What does this fold into?
Amino acid sequence: MRHALLVLGILALCIVGSAAADRHWQTGTWTKVSSTRQVVDFGPGSSPFDRGPSTQTLHAMADVRIYFIETDTLRLELKDVVQVNKRTVDAVVGTLVTFALEKKAIYVRDEDGTEHKLSVTKQSTKHLE
It folds into this structure.
């Protein structure tokens, strides 16, 4: 039984590692970064589906960070909601960024290679003139 669990664990690590390696990495430039604080709902009552009066929604303060990345052909608006004062993406306007776009998610690499997953809120194509 232990051997089977070990094999499954190694297989899971290989699958996760290969998914990161299969990403289509691109480069762009950070063009804008903003941050606000707001109350966010979480917990069992935060679902948009009505579960009746017995569920309780929990609230907490969070940092909501909005990032913009541009390439020669794309403009991307990204959103990251994190716990107050939690370290997140180190984005400096005007510097290069390495990213991989996957549907409504984007993976951004820090200088040390750490990957951060953010949500894509807007994506538009730049028209070449």
Observations:
- The radius of gyration is 19 Å.
- The first strand starts at residue 25 and ends at 42.
- Helices lie at 2-21.
- The chain has one domain: 24-46+57-125.
